[in-house]
Amino acid sequence: MTHHHDDDGGDGISRRHALECMIWAGTGVLWTISGGVPVSLNLLGAAQAAEAMATGFTFLQISDSHIGFDKAANPHAIDTLKEAMGKIQALPQKPAFLIHTGDITHLSKPAQFDNAAQIIGGAGFDVHYVPGEHDLIDEGNGQAYLERYGKGTKGAGWYSFDQNGVHFVALVNVVNLKAGGLGNLGAEQLAWLADDLKAVSASTPVVVFAHIPLWAVYPEWGWGTDDAAQALGLLKRFGSVTVLNGHIHQIMQKVEGNVTFHTARSTAFPQPAPGTAASPGPMTVPAGQLRSLLGTSRVMVKQGGQDLAIIDSTLADA
Amino acid sequence: MICIRLPARHMAAMLTAFALTAATSQPLSAADAPMVKIENFAFTPPVLTIKPGTTVTFRNDDDIPHLVVANDSSFRSKALDTGDTYEFTFTKAGDFAYFCGLHPHMQGRITVAP
C-alpha cells in the first residue's frame, strides 16, 4: 500500500482519467468481481476503483442503444453509441466481455441491427446480448433477433454461461406480454432457470441480466416483471446475486437480502425519473446536457443520494 | 373480421360522404370520431363506442413505437413508429379490449354496438 502512495504523484492523472472514462461508461457500467461479489466500479471510491481496475475481472454493461432512434431527445443515437464504444475501447484495463441488456435497435430493422453490430462488434469484445422489446418488432416477431443472436440460446433467447467463477444467466422478459401486465418470463423459461441453477453451488456468485427490471421499479409505467418473484425465489439459496437490467434509461439500485439490483443508463436518450413526467417517453433536454444524462457523475450523485449507502454496505460486506 | 387499410384522406372522404347521407341509414356519425390517438403511453379515448362496420384508425403520436393488440388476438398492428397509423374495421358487435404489445400496461377498449 505504501508503494501505491509513493506512486500517487506519478499515477494520479492517469488514474483520474481512467475514472472519468469509467463514469462515462455508466453507459457502460463497468463491473468488477471483488471478493466474489460483483460491485459497480463507479460506486467505489477513487482509490478502490483504481485498485479494482488494476487487478481482477471486469465486464461491462451497455444498454438501450436504440440504433435508428432519431427523434428530438437525441437525433444522433448512432453517434452516442460510437462515443460509448470509443470510451470502452480506451479503458486502460479491458473488460473481459460486454453484456448488452437490450433495445439494441429502435425498430428491429435490418439496417439498424447491421449498424449496431458494426459499431458494437467493431470494438472487438465478446458481447452477450438479451433482447429488449424494440428488438422483436420485425415482421417475424423476433426472428430477426434470434437469427443474429439466438445461436446456442433456448426459447426466445435465454442462456447461461460461466466465467471466472461467476455464473451468468441471460433472461428474456419481453415476449408474450399480457394485457395490463409488465415484463414476462413465462413458465418455460422459469422451468429452464430452475434446471440451469441445479448444478450451481450456493457459494457461486450469480449475475442475472435481462432487459426490463426484475423488480417493481414503477409498475405504473410498466417498469417491472410480473413473474420476477418466481425467478428470484430460485435464486434465494445463493450468497450473492446481482441483477442487471436496462429499459428505464437511468441508474436505479436496490439491495434486498442477497440480491443487488441495478439498472444501466442508455447510450441513446434519457427517460424521466418515475412519475416525474406525463409518460416514460424519451426525455428531451438542452443539447449540452444530453451526454451528462447518458452517463456522468452528476446523475450518479443524484441516484447515489438515495441508494448509495445501501450499496456501500454491500460492498463493505464483500 | 375484415381488416381494411385505407389512406387517412380516403377515410375523411368516406366520413364526409356518410355525414351527407340520411341519418337513419348511415353507419357512422360525426360523434363516432373513429380515431384512437396514442400519446404519452396512453390510448385516447381509452373507450370508444362505434357501430358495426366502422373502421377505427389508431395513430401513434409518441416518439416511441407502440403496437396495438386485441386481448382476444382478433387484431394486431405492426409496430407503429411516430406518425404511423393502423386501421381496423369492426364488423361484429361486442367489447374488444386491446393493449400495447410493447407496453402492456397501456390498455383500451372498442365497444361495438348497433
From TrEMBL, chain B:
This is Cupredoxin family copper-binding protein. Residues 14-112 form the EfeO-type cupredoxin-like domain. Keywords: Signal. Transmembrane segments: none annotated. The keyword tRNA processing does not apply. It comes from the Bacteria. It comes from Mesorhizobium abyssinicae. Residues 1-30 form the signal peptide. InterPro entries: Amicyanin, Cupredoxin, EfeO_Cupredoxin, ET_Amicyanin. Pfam families: Cupredoxin_1.
